[in-house]
Amino acid sequence: MEQDIDRILITDRELAQRVDEMAAQIAACYSDDDAGLILVPILSGSIIFLSDLIRRLPMKMKLGLITVSSYAGATTESNAAELVMDLNVDIRGRHVLVVDDILDTGKTLRLVKERLHQRAPRSIRTAVLLRKPSKAPPDVTADFVGFEIADEFVVGYGLDYDGHYRNFPHIAVLKEEHY
Ligand code: 5GP
Ligand code: MG
Fold it and tell me: What is the pLDDT of residue 139?
């Protein structure tokens, strides 16, 4: 795996430190919450971020899992985001925090937020580890953002290329011949 990596953009230590800061922000935001927080991670890219984040959050919460697929193997646009598994917990009247790995074109978050709205939660906020500001449209924003990165395809810390590299501990760019 290591030999496929061209360069590391964000190290595991930097990730850990930033996730600490994000957890503090999120905890402050929901500190007086009596409506029961539901975290909705978008599978599978958010799993490592999620597992680090939730263990730093002190409040009671439930998880509601959803999967949105872009196209398998594609490194570029998630042309039409498609919801392939629906939410498995009741979010009506609850505070919802959507967690995703990366906000790129915004299609994924737009779709997920629309679907969640239909189920009448009390609030919907979003936390993303990474954001590519060059492409993010003005109407799809994230309330909590870990890092802003340039518009290049990254892997590691949960993010894959064609299913691989999710277990690489840093955020990195692959050597060109591996895309
Ligand atoms: P959006 O719908 O905002 O264009 O894209 C969000 C989804 O596309 C992310 O959840 C992620 O699955 C995928 N994606 C976008 N950019 C990257 C990237 O640089 N690397 C990886 N591995 N996935 C990405
Ligand atoms: Mg994703």
Answer: 87
**Phi-psi sector, 6: left (phi>0), alpha (psi -120 to 50), beta:** alpha
Residue 19 has pLDDT above 60, yes or no: yes
Q: Give the mutation target among 104, 134, 149, 173 for probing the ligand 1 site: most ligand atoms within 8 A of CB.
A: 104
Taking alpha carbons only, the member of 167, 168, 166, 169 closest to residue 45 is 166
Query: Which ligand is closest in space to the CA of residue 42?
Result: 2
pLDDT tens-place string over residues 85-123:
678 799 999 999 999 999 999 999 999 999 999 999 999
Kindly state if the Cβ of 45 falls inside 6 Å of ligand 1: yes
In percent, how much of the chain has pLDDT > 90? 75
Ordered DSSP codes for 31-85: TT--S-EEEEEEETTTHHHHHHHHTT--S-EEE--EEEE--TT--S---S-EEEE
149 token code pair: 């990165």
Q: Is 106 in the pocket of ligand 1 (CB under 6 A)?
A: yes
Atom of ligand 1 nearest to the CA of 104: 3
